[in-house]
Each structure stands twice: as C-alpha cells, then as structure tokens.
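Hi all, long-time lurker, first post. I run a small reading group and we've been trying to get comfortable going from sequence to structure in the token notation. Rather than ask abstract questions, I figured I'd post a concrete chain and ask someone more experienced to write out its structure so we can walk through it together at our next meeting. Sequence below, copied exactly:
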Amino acid sequence: MADPRSSAYVGDITPPSGALGALRFDNIEANIKYQPAPQYWFGAMYAYTRATFDATSGKKHPVYHSVGLMADYLFSKRTDVYMQTVYQHVGGDKTGSVLDAAYVVSAAGVASGQNQVVFRLGLRHFF
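-- Answer (accepted) --
Happy to help. Here is the structure in token form:
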C-alpha cells in the first residue's frame, strides 16, 4: 500500500468486516467538443462508472457520476491557456471502504464525502 503521506495515497479498500474477493469497474463515457473559431474551443464530458465490489460480506455496486468542462484559448501555435473543472458524485451501494468517497484523478486526495469538485487553470507552452 502507498504511503498515506504521498499524494498517490487514496485509502484502504478493505471492507471493515471480511475480505475483498474482487473489484471491477465498468465505464461508459461521452465527450463533445465545439470549436467556434480556430483559436478557441470548448469541451464537455460525462462518465458513468459502476463498480462491482465482491467481498465476503456480500456483493455491492457503488456508482460514480463524473461531469467535466474545459475551455482552451490558443495564443499561438505553441502557447495556450485552459480551464478545466470536474465534478464527481458517488451513489449506489455503500461498501464501508474508501470507495464510498469521491476521488477525482489529480485531486489532492479523496473527498471527505460523496462529492468532489476540482478546478484547474493552466498555461502551456510547447518547446
């Protein structure tokens, strides 16, 4: 298991009673991009994830809904500024583990509850 002080640590998935037998994630994702002019574009995405958490205490199915938006403006062929936001909500069955909390990849850590929002503003330059 990763060091809990590292940014890669997301928590323990072992249920409080029993042992974990199998864990599976099934995804469906939809994306759309709209580019009204050559120098800027907008994007949106939705991802539905259904987990199968098979433990000695029973089979559970947590569900994750993720929605993201992005805008990008190109200053030149090599430099752009972009803004992203992602919202995630966890529903479905409770597992009694860290899988009950939202976790958006690149966030500082696991959310304290079922919802998490991450914002990113960036300036890129390709060399």
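A couple of things your group might point at:
The chain has one domain: 20-125.
DSSP finds no helices and six strands in the chain.
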